[in-house]
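To: structure desk
From: M.T.
Subject: fold request, one chain
Message: Could you run this one when you get a chance? Sequence is below, nothing fancy, just the single chain.
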Amino acid sequence: MPHDMLLMSLDALAGHYQMGSLSPVEVARAHLAHLARLEPTLHAFQIVDEAGALAAAQASETRWRAGTARGKLDGAPTTIKDNIDLAGFPTRSGSTTTPETKASTDAPVVARLREAGAVFLGKTTTPEFGWKGITDSTLRGEATRNPWKLSHSSGGSSGGAAAAVVCGIGTIAFGNDGGGSIRIPAGFCGAFGIKPTFGRVPHHPLESPFATVVAGGPITRTVQDAATTLAVMARPDERDWFSIPPPAPGWLADLTPRVKGLRFAWSPDLGGAKPDDEVMSVLAPALATLRTAGAAVESVGPVFDPLRPIFEDFWLAGFANRLRQIPESRWDETDPGWLALAKAGLHIPVDRVLAGMVARPRLHNRVAALFATHHLLLTPTTPHVAPRADIAYHSQGYDRWDDGVPYTLPFNLTGHPAASIPIGLSNAGLPVSLQVVGPRFAEREILEACLGIEALLGFPAKYATLMR
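Reply: Done. Structure tokens follow.
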């Protein structure tokens, strides 16, 4: 099957469906066959629903032929991360300790995508309870691999989502992000991913102490596909009482690429982060190109102090809350790294947890002050390229705070929208990405800037190694 067919954009697919030169069934079969070929190496799927995908594709084909298609997502191959509900399938969250009970209803984002005619190929992998920035779990049994270099990680916790979409398995992928879980795997795999403003994409059920930091969003191969998908994902659902009022109709329509005249704040040392030379060797010339194109890029320093002293207890207590829901006799089934942190969280007093909650508005205000003088904030997405797939996460060799989430986590705590866009390959052949952060509710501004960056810099490689 020609790779170009698998990598078509939403616009291209819709155009073919409308003309009748391709059918949703033909495209779904191609994606499923491609999935079957690559999955033994990629390890990106927890569940594959071939029968359901073909039935949905047939229904889409009928609508396109009748002239009643529901929009550009009608017939689009789509994947869903296995920590949200897809009716008819269990939600395992990467853990053998979760029940195999099938979800009776769709989560809000799944319902919106289904209403738009999306074709669900299956559910993608996640580390246990989405706790880390790489994707492996005892439930899946194999680490999800990076499509550019199979010895390396796809990132996490939406690692299966990013790896699949980069390989042409699915046109769009749903991920969610509580500390970088959209942006990190998008950055490591060379995809585009956007974490919208907190509350923009409704979620249900809300049963986690991290419910106020997690945001759902798309991972795609192009900025425009993400914008088209986000407009659907953000449609309202009354089950989420954290959700913000729905945006005006057409809020992401007719986006215009924009770089010239923008004032970017640039913070490679955000919160004390330290990007390595491999990352900076790609980012530095990219920033120079933005300046040449008429953007102002001003270094603004670290913006705020390191987050670990203030917020570590907040995270550990959240892990402990999840641990208490698992029978103690089954604790040894869980990821040893997660279990050690969760056990440490059992002994954290409530006043130290509340201190983290109280600090969040202060952190928000420090970031928000930047946007009084700058349109957007730029940082590396990650301080390093993708680590090896067998890395021990949150270890001496790969610390969660210093190596994993220093650039991404702050904007989960503040609720600001942020995107990761690939801009080049390192000397080792692994993607390097730029994070673009905006004021609350500024998804349109971020997407237009990313369209401009995409057009100006252009990700240099068409196919990941696994696709060649």
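Reply (cont.): The radius of gyration is 21 Å. Let me know if you need anything else for the meeting.
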